[in-house]
Design goal:
Its main location: membrane. The chain is mainly α. The protein has 13 helices and two strands; from the N terminus they run H-H-H-H-H-H-H-H-H-H-H-E-E-H-H. The mean pLDDT is 91.
């Protein structure tokens, strides 16, 4: 396997990890007003991701750094063509992170409500915009022969990218609701399972529509066959996860949604390969060969990744193990005294 191919797989791996982990983070934030009846409920919901949200978010930083180092032309064209949505994502993530840290600093209800709204918007906006960006990359952007992007609003916002945005948003909401059900007990757990079931049907419909549209548009892609297989796997995992949620098997449900998210994002990367950013203007298409760094750079980075990636994954697993217990309203009440 060539280094460029290996690094394309690694870029996909880090983005898949980000969507699986920060995806349910976004879902928890979006579910905050739907599951909470009072401030104690809201604290329970927020505390389900309190110990892990920042670690989950580091995956996008690593993914961006890997993209920049391994495929600088891809990174430059992507960030120039998608500058506005990426900037909005950054601002939303900043507001969301600040809210987690500042919400509890004052007991005034208006103070808390203001930061709750920031958590909700800071979770909804990135999920929606990431879906738009990734489907926009798969669809392609108008570029010059020098790989300069000449994208207008309709190149970024159109029916296909809007369907991608809605699909990712709904999948994150279901993923987050299942995680809340896995991490809580009592009334919140019951409401979270109902939310996952209710949002599951439109999420499945949107996901099937996006999969069919994507595969039809890219039926001549080099890996169209594997993309179809992985896409079908995403559908099976989603159905299995929703079924497990209905019978109260939250662990299986969460696993099913994690596989769904991973397979869905993997499908988008599979239909791209070996292209990394198609050009809709006939020239300037970026591939793993003309967008990559030198073999020496890729080789050095490979050693770094081989050492650091297992450490990051191991630390993440340990963190989730330490904070594995379910949360209840009683825990919040006990912590207040």
């Amino acid at each position: 396997m060539e280094l460029t191919q290996l690094w394309f797989i690694l870029v996909a791996f880090f983005f898949v990890g980000y969507f699986v982990l920060d995806g349910f983070d976004f879902g928890v934030g979006m579910a905050l007003p739907l599951l909470s009846r009072d401030d104690t409920d809201r604290r329970v919901v927020i505390n389900t991701i309190g110990p892990v949200w920042d670690l989950n978010e580091t995956w996008v930083i690593v993914a961006g750094a890997v993209l920049f180092a391994a495929f600088p032309e891809w990174y430059a064209s992507l960030f120039s063509g998608m500058y506005l949505p990426l900037l909005l994502i950054l601002l939303a993530l900043i507001a969301r992170g600040v809210s987690f840290e500042f919400r509890h600093q004052r007991k005034h209800p208006e103070w808390k409500r203001a930061f709750d709204r920031m958590i909700i918007v800071g979770s909804l906006a990135p999920a929606f915009l990431w879906g738009m960006i990734f489907t926009g990359v798969v669809q392609g952007l108008p570029m010059t022969a020098d790989h300069d992007v000449r994208a207008g609003l309709t190149d970024i916002v159109n029916p296909y990218t809007l369907l991608g945005a809605v699909t990712v948003t709904l999948l994150c909401l279901v993923h987050g609701a299942v995680f809340i059900a896995l991490k809580t007990d009592g009334a919140i757990r019951t409401r979270a399972r109902r939310l996952a079931a209710g949002a599951g049907l439109p999420a499945a419909a949107a996901a099937v529509g996006l999969l069919v549209w994507t595969l039809l548009e890219h039926r001549d892609a080099a890996l169209a066959g594997p993309a179809l297989v992985v896409g079908v796997l995403a559908g099976i995992a989603l159905v299995g996860g929703l079924a497990a949620n209905l019978v109260g098997r939250e662990g299986l449900a969460f696993t099913g949604l994690a596989v769904t998210m991973a397979a869905a994002i993997s499908t988008l990367f599979l239909v791209l390969f070996p292209t990394v950013l198609p050009s809709t203007s006939g020239v300037g298409t970026l591939t793993i060969d003309n967008a990559s760094s030198t073999d020496y750079t890729l080789g050095v980075m490979l050693w770094v990744a081989a050492i650091t990636t297992p450490l990051v994954i191991g630390y993440q697993i340990w963190t989730y193990w330490v904070f594995r217990r379910r949360l209840t309203r009683e825990h919040i009440a006990a912590a207040a005294h």
